[in-house]
Fold this sequence. Notes:
7 helices, 38% helix, globular
Amino acid sequence: MTRRIEADSSIAVGPAAAPELFDFAARMHLVEDQPAWSPQLRSRSVLVQTPKRHMADPSLAAALLGAGTSRLLTEPRTLGFLYEGQVVHDLRVYAQAIGARGVFHYRDTKGRDEIDAVVEAADGRWIAVEAKLGESAVDAAARNLLRVTAKIARPPSACVVVVPTGVAHRRGDGVFVVPITVLGA
């Protein structure tokens, strides 16, 4: 990061620049960490896992990249990161409104199994959430949620795949498919 800043400007930047810039962005509420989640109350894995970092508002990231609608549609991977950030943002708003403990991400200790977002209530109940851009990705996301949550001792209250549009419904395997537009309804 420091090399890129130096290349793009005439400012000499030291190795402490990246953490200082992130600290500044955090104090300005431009970025938010999504901490790791553990199904157990006492777990070292939460302490050693890196939080996911999201822009507080994903449209800020798109604006900083100079990415309009047409450009993002040609780069689905970038759009997917921004969409996941928007889903996490919305989940945080709704979780705070209901007094939930928070919105976390889950990754097992080997880094093989992960869940985009885990919303945990104050009483320990939780839901597993995957954010997917298209209906074609729902089957794989549902299978992943069911496979990963089956390995966790405390079962989730629900497994949810959040998509951009469509009709909210419950699949035959019990996984909910919910458009982002009806998350808080």
